[in-house]
Task: structure prediction
Amino acid sequence: MASVLIIDDDRVVCDMLSNIIQDMGHSVTCCHKLASGLPEAAAGKYDLVLLDVGLPDGNGLDAIERIQKAEFAPQIIIITGAGDRNGAELAIRNGAWDYIEKPASVHDMALPIMRALQYREERAALGRCAAAPKLLVLDGIIGSCPRMKGRFELVAQAANSEMNVLITGETGTGKELFAYAIHNNSLRAKKPFVVVDCSALPETLVESILFGHVRGAFTGAEKAREGLIKQADGGTLFLDEVGELPFSVQKTFLRVLQERRFRPLGSSTEITSDFRLIAATNRDLQKMVHEGTFRHDFLFRLRSFIIELPPLRDRGEDIAEIAKHHVAKLCERHGIGLKGFSPGLMEALLTYKWPGNVRELLHALERSLAAAFHEPTLFTQHLPEYIRIDLARHAVGGAIQPHNAADGEPACRETFPSLRAYRENMDRKYLMELITVAGNNMREACRISGLSRSRLYDLLKDHNVTNCSQANF
Result:
């Protein structure tokens, strides 16, 4: 018998769902507000939570992550009277089992409940039968928030298959580390892991680099060369920044994915390579398909299995763990005593938005350690200047203060920005300040921000910063 929790302020719906669940032979508890429902869910005694979106004291979608923090996190089904496509996408991305729009028939309600409970039972049975479950090798990946735990489960699933994997996420989120983790936990772990940086491939030599060539295939080909695809034989081929792969090469590569056969430049004979493909990108490939700059059939092949990595700003609870782990490694590498963190420094790390994500955080910590090399404690003063400037600017009347519901309504409710508008405004401000701090030097801007050159150009163009500042990179 399973235990189900319903969090919904509509008592008629609660009664209907309770009858459905009890007829299945399961127990059910009803709460009508998040204030009472979240403590119940956190107790870890429920297998399934049916969660409404529009509750009197909050939005159910915002509560998904809190529910998943329970030690034995339940499955979650969102039920809402105001169906919204963006809400449905957000729910599924955050780990919900299903998203159901009210009013729905008894059958429409019962079927996902039955499937979710069946799934949970099978997973529990598998856990009981597994005498020694395999521990994932996650070298360099730090994080314990619910979103990261979900990604680790996807790594395990991908490692146990041979499907093509597409890893998406902003620059600096650790896409290559995740690709390497999939490889290290797969049956190919002892074989080569070959990285192809598609953004750095010279267009005139890309086919030679990927497929190899025979002697005399072109001017300067004085000897035969094995391509990267062949070097990955038996192992994993990682296409980093696959969105930068020239359009002309995508069709050729498509056949390689289908047949695992190809012909080196200048050769009359095809050769084979048994590789597993993992690709990564920080670009919207579906948008590129619509723009005609990326092949739809190639994208279809790439995304057999998708892992989307969250930005660091959405996993703030991991920042302290990442910072302490990385500083400890740096101190050991340099043979110096372990550094302490002042409260002010930790507050600064948690306040800053980290547009360059984990990569930017690690660079900032390395800079801080260099500045405090002989000092026992890291302070805010040791952080890179551009971060301290950003924090100081936002501390002087630039930041929107958190609103406490007990204080009444916000003073300017009608003009309060949407989250998207606020983030876009903050991104634009960051880019403009980045240009100033970097002295209009593109290489320095990339180093400071942790962004690749192509990604930084895209952001400058999207936010019209280049035209605004007349920056000459």
Q: What stands out?
A: The two ends are 65 Å apart (CA to CA).
